[in-house]
Design brief:
2 copies of one chain form a homodimer. In chain A, a hairpin with a 5-residue loop joins β3 and β4. In chain A, α3 packs across α4. Chain A is 47% helix and 19% strand. By secondary structure, chain A is an alpha+beta fold. The first copy, chain A, has a 3-stranded mixed β-sheet. Chain A has a two-stranded antiparallel ribbon with strand order 1-2. Chain A binds a DNA duplex through α2 and α4.
Chain lengths: 148, 148
DNA sequence: TAGCTCTTGCCAATCGATTGCAGCAACCAC
DNA sequence: GTGGTTGCTGCAATCGATTGGCAAGAGCTA
């Protein structure tokens, strides 16, 4: 994905912040840029490390506060993985994660892919599952072949 | 479930500990009793609070160390829920959890119930999912009816 | 520009979880 | 039993992740 479209996306998000009464700051811009650039999922610490290459004085607490603001506005989601780690990603890029325990690769899975699961839970258990991103752990295709 | 069968189960687990070279102690007995009594899932803090009613001096660190021992022996599983909390339960009672965000009720779901999901991931993505207990969040049947 | 208020950097506090250590207790051998 | 070895435990310190307080600084409006 070309760089300028990322920039556009960052600007769009900044505009949404401003529209909701927040201020346009360098710190927020930098944090959002990292989230957009990674495209997938990042930890708060990943963001801090990355941002501090350009803004060494930017504190982790600012990262957390920005993430909280973005979460309140529904711009990013926080996901707790099944291995205990916590990651963030853009809400409009909602997806499940297939995490390989051996090589660490993370494959994305569209939320819609588990539509059958939603229906099953609703019909059999009356349970309306939230479309919350899941972090599923196991063996990816290549590691599975390599181990067999 | 009658109390004496819980006692039996606690004794069985203690026997397994002893058989693997561990010592038979009151602390471990008490921690195991809580896990068995709850039948479902408990947090480390739940266990500590419960155990300390009988053994006020028993420390959380002992709870964690006991849980770690039980985990090494494959007697209990640790599960990270999608809301970030961590719970433990007996391995022979492995199951998914349907957690209601409104009333807090937790419904159990047999691991086998998601067999289709496993197959789907394997066939479509080549991903071999571990049968890891999931904590799914949403609305339970009664809260869903009440809100409609 | 003045001035209000939100943000931020810095730092301490918190929270869940873990670890080092010294004393105690379980188990084994006699 | 009794003594000795070694594992367990309580306590306090620690660690990583996250949050809160506060004063200085920066963004926005008039």
């Amino acid at each position: 994905m070309p760089e300028h479209s990322h920039r556009d996306q960052v600007d769009q998000i900044m505009d949404r912040l401003v529209a909701s009464g927040k201020r346009r700051t360098m710190s927020r811009q930098a944090v959002i840029k990292v989230i957009v650039d990674y495209h997938g999922h990042v930890s708060a610490d990943d963001i801090a490390t990355q941002v501090q290459k350009d803004f060494p004085s930017l504190d982790v607490s600012t990262v957390y506060r920005t993430l909280e603001t973005l979460r309140e506005l529904g711009i990013v989601d926080r996901v707790y993985f099944a291995d205990g780690s916590t990651v963030y990603h853009l809400s409009d890029h909602k997806h499940h994660h297939l995490c390989c325990e051996r090589c660490g690769a993370v494959q994305e899975l569209p939320i819609s892919a588990l539509g059958n699961l939603e229906r099953f839970l609703l019909e059999e258990y009356g349970f309306q599952n939230h479309q919350q991103p899941l972090g599923l752990f196991g063996l990816c295709a290549s590691c599975r072949q390599a181990s067999s």
